[in-house]
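User: quick one, fold this
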Amino acid sequence: MNDASDENGRKRSIRSRKTSASNTALDSEAKDSNSRKRSSKASEHRKKEDDDEDNSNNNNNNAIENVINAVVEYVGWIVKSIGKFFNKQIEEEEDDDRDEFVAIEITEERQRVILKVRERLDVSFDDTSQEHVMMLRELWMCSFDSTNDKFPDDTNDTNRSEDDDAVADRLGEYSNRNRNSSSHRSEKWKEMGWQGSHPSTDLRACGIFALENLLYFAKTRKESYERLLKKRDGQRSAWEYPFAAAGVNVTHELTKIINVDNIIRNGTVGKTMRVEKCVLGFFEKHDALKRTRAAASMNFERNRDDNETFHELYCDMFEILDKQWLESKATYMEFPNVLKSAKQKMIYELNKRKREEERALLASGQPK
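Assistant:
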């Protein structure tokens, strides 16, 4: 009886221990499951926080970028508006009547002046011409006088003896040899702003007239010529415009300003034709210069330079060109824009003369 009772007690004890172990295992599994869930939730929470932070940063960055873009766009709009305003003011001041046409009478004097310009434009530089070589020599002396560099010709050929020259003279070869353009070649021409070792390459564009204008500048406005040639004014660019080649461009643009070809094609002496006001400004300047020179000299008609008005305007425009170059802080590649700006300023100056005369007539009560 007691044995049976003990047996039953052991069984209950074993069942109790099994149940307890089972419950402990279940509790442990439950705890592990809960721990994994909590860890998973914590991980998800951290990920969500990281995502929220990334989104917040992205939103902030986008917001900042949008603000910056908006500010840049607004500033750009302001600058553009200011630019348009000032451009409009400049156009109203300088271009008020640039595109307007006026009717002028083509007198014999006016036709003669235009024909003289065209005539010189059509003369190509000729190194066999004593006149042309002399002009080249004068330009060299005006430009390199301080350096004492000799004009490049055959007389500077140190490889020739006096006997060689004597023989060449007897055979008539010296003059021909001296007239060869190669005899005047020198790398020093490039220091003046010619693009080759001889000016003839650049002079193809406007013929001997470009050389005439440059020489006039050198002889009549020595100080200004020296300043521009040696680039003494202002803060210069590391890549400057070539001085002499720029002078050829000034000649070309000025012939377009005064409308040379149009007047020759369509102008008839004794009749009127419509031209830009700047053309009339050119003729009026010519008339004023003619009166001044005539009053100063009894021999004006005999000694006059028919192209002096053009020469004077050439000097003016060259000085304007260099001033515009410095003001715009331009470099070599921007030269066409500076030349265009100088041309517009030259047109304005010619128109200003006409406007001043019109205002004076209005003030006096006289008709235009």
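User: anything notable?
Assistant: The two ends are 154 Å apart (CA to CA).
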